[in-house]
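F.,

This is the one I mentioned.
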């Protein structure tokens, strides 16, 4: 969850992890967090609801590992099962620093 400073121009001063309740700020730097967001529309059981969760790096990748495990359980006896186990990029949208991406790190 975003922690805002009250005032005329409300600004997020920190982001607290919705799983472990720890600050996602590491020292003087900007908060580092992942976001899980959903905006449910017509035809869904949660129509009109919007959800947004903020996760620290540790909790984010713990959730990614759990999603990957759930996906693997669904197809573990298929050929796809083996591929999921070795997929280090599961859910990742860009290249890692090792692959030539992440120029800001
Ligand atoms: Zn956390």
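My design for it:
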């Amino acid at each position: 969850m975003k922690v805002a400073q009250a005032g005329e121009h409300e600004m997020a001063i920190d982001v607290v992890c919705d799983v472990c309740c720890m600050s996602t700020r590491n020292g003087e730097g900007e908060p580092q967090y992942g976001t899980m967001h959903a905006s449910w529309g017509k035809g869904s059981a949660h129509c009109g609801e919007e959800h947004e969760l903020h996760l620290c790096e540790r909790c984010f990748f713990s959730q990614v590992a759990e999603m990957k495990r759930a996906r693997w359980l669904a197809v573990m006896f298929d050929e796809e099962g083996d591929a999921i186990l070795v997929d280090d990029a599961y859910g990742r949208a860009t290249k890692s620093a090792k692959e030539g991406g992440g120029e800001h790190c």
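The chain has one domain: 2-92.

Talk soon.
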